[in-house]
Amino acid sequence: MSITVLDTYSAMKRILLAPVADRAGLLRSMLEPISGMYRHHPGEVDLVAVHLETSGFPVDRDEERCLDALETLAAAGAWERMQRAFDGALDVLLEATPGLEAPDITVLFVLGDPGDEHFMGPCQGVTGFGGISGQIVITFWPFPENVERLEVTAVHELHHNLRFSPGGVVWDPMTVTVGEHIVSEGLADAFARRLYGDELGHTRIGVPHLHDDEVFDKVLTGLDVTGMQNFTAWVHGDPSAERFGLTPVGLPMGAGYAAGNRLVDAYLAATGQTAEQVLHADSSEIITATLRRG
Length: 294
Description:
Layout: E1 3-5, H1 8-17, H2 20-31, H3 47-53, H4 63-75, H5 78-96, E2 105-111, H6 117-120, E3 126-129, E4 135-140, H7 144-148, H8 150-163, H9 178-196, H10 198-201, H11 213-220, H12 231-235, H13 238-243, H14 255-271, H15 283-293
Parallel strand pairs: 1-2, 2-4
Antiparallel strand pairs: 3-4
Protein name: DUF2268 domain-containing protein
InterPro entries: DUF2268
Domain DUF2268: 101-287
């Protein structure tokens, strides 16, 4: 099993310096290695359209801002740091889970859209998607706080990827519950905190609500909601739900992450286990054991 962080620095620089008419084609070529992420989607997926819809850097404006951001990441050694973080975290997970098997993983690290107010504001300039085995996409803007947490972002997504790899937890988009999603975020944060400490390891959007009992109690009422299309408001919060035209439920940004951390922390404390040891733990077991203690 190996992890490859693609050289998107060179590809993005080429795209941003190319004539506008050529950029979509170059971007499509850069995105092709992660096309397998959409293997469950019905019909053919337009990789460029998905990139733009999910806050990826634009191809028709903000070239200078994006080029400057690209150089900031290069100066920070972003690609090299992420590769080292992935490799080190993989070693930890393999040691803790004997017999763990998963496909090789391809990582696409791309700039976000500086003109996307939701991405730059409520999302704080970073999103990640690691739930499809063998593929990880991280969309990023180099705010100082994010650059400091490059490694944390990487290992969080790796935990997701291996949790939902063949032989691990099955993610059925139609029957999966909010509880599963929230627990997976808590486990990934617990793993990142195990490697990099509590100060850096929490996903930033969840931090303001970690000790908010009202938010926690509200999230608990949605644990049995099924179907991925219903998750955004419960996990990411109303601002993200509204951004994508979904129904809000009365939760702030990052509510599900905060709740997931509380559920997982209580479970780990009760069992004496670590996040790497419970990579494939059943989410319902974690929820039940935690709420029973509460």
